[in-house]
Amino acid sequence: MELSSDQKELVELFVQQEFLISILYKLFARRYPEHKVFWTKMAKEELMHASLIKRLIESDSQNKIKFTQGELRKNALTSSMKFLETTINEFKNDETIPITQAARVALQLEKGLWEKKVFQFFEGDSDEVRRVLDSLNSEQGLHIIQIDNFGLQFMGKSAV
Length: 160
Fold this sequence. Notes:
By secondary structure, the protein is mainly alpha-helical. The chain has a single domain, classed as Up-down Bundle (Ferritin). Helix content is 71%, strand content 4%. The chain contains five helices and two strands. The protein has a two-stranded antiparallel sheet with strand order 1-2. The longest helix has 27 residues, at 5-31. It is globular, with a radius of gyration of 16 Å.
């Protein structure tokens, strides 16, 4: 079954959202050089997620991948992307924002994606597609754990 134009638009918005998250994490890597390795790794993984989804959809000539919209709606993704753009601008323009806030924002984003179960809206009719989708879903959970653990090192420290 070929994706409808609405579904294709949602997938494209989702890919764009992953790219925006990567931009935010790259900004964190520059803003907090003592944590550059962590944020760069997270940014690269977000780019990989976006690329994998885009490649799966673009190379799906045999319609082995399906996208079940579920509760995911265009306005929710658009709202999330506006939040991301605002957050990116805030971090670009305010150099006093502490690392604790960066960790909170990242955790909020990752948990939001997890709660929306975004990767679970994709289904595959082949082993390869299912493997990629399972991997993306697992990595989403790992991001939450990694960012949560990263943020724990700042517990009890002043936010400024």
